[in-house]
Specification:
The protein is an alpha/beta fold and 171 residues long. The chain has six helices and six strands; from the N terminus they run βαβαββββαααα. α1 crosses α6.
Length: 171
């Protein structure tokens, strides 16, 4: 089974390879646009970005499956503050499975700069004096001191999105 990941980010590809290791014969990165803002806000926009990436990646070269992964920020009912969120979409062109990663509360210093228009990855690079954090440990790794890496979090989201294709519970 050939799988396309709608991103050239090596962490997104690694998470997909890990989640689909038992079924994918090839996992390829395909550069596609998400169709949403660089910093998605809220569940709906983040899901839309993941779904759009999955659909565009799959149709790029008639892949068996397309996987789209999108990170965003959102308020969460019942909690104060702003949270990092992650969504994945998996599609075969007929159906779409969705899965989410963990929600991680963002420090107020980060949240206030996001609310002022910053994007999370470059913001963390600036705060930590690093480059390419989103292609390494990601915000999840920073916020948990690598207890949860970005790959771990995205693996969970992709595995959840793949559920309808393997479990038989969605028929």
């Amino acid at each position: 089974m050939r799988v396309a990941v709608g991103s050239e980010n090596p962490v997104k590809r690694a998470a997909t390879e890990r989640a689909l290791a038992d079924v994918a014969t090839a996992v390829e990165s395909v550069a596609v646009e998400s169709g949403v803002a660089e910093q998605p806000w809220g569940e709906a926009e983040t899901i839309e970005g993941a779904r759009t990436r999955a659909e565009r990646a799959r149709s790029a070269d008639d892949y068996d499956l397309g996987v789209g992964i999108e990170g965003g920020v959102a308020s969460v009912d019942g909690a104060n503050g702003l949270f990092l969120i992650m969504w994945a979409a998996v599609t075969d062109g007929k159906q779409v499975g969705l899965g989410a990663g963990p929600r991680l509360e963002l420090p107020e210093t980060v949240a206030s700069r996001l609310e002022a228009g910053a994007e999370l990855g470059p913001l963390l690079d600036d705060l930590l004096d690093t480059t390419g954090i989103k292609e390494d440990q990601g915000a999840a790794g920073v916020l948990t001191d690598r207890i949860i890496t970005r790959e771990d979090a995205l693996f969970q989201a992709v595995a959840g999105g793949f559920g309808p294709f393997v479990s038989g519970q969605y028929d």
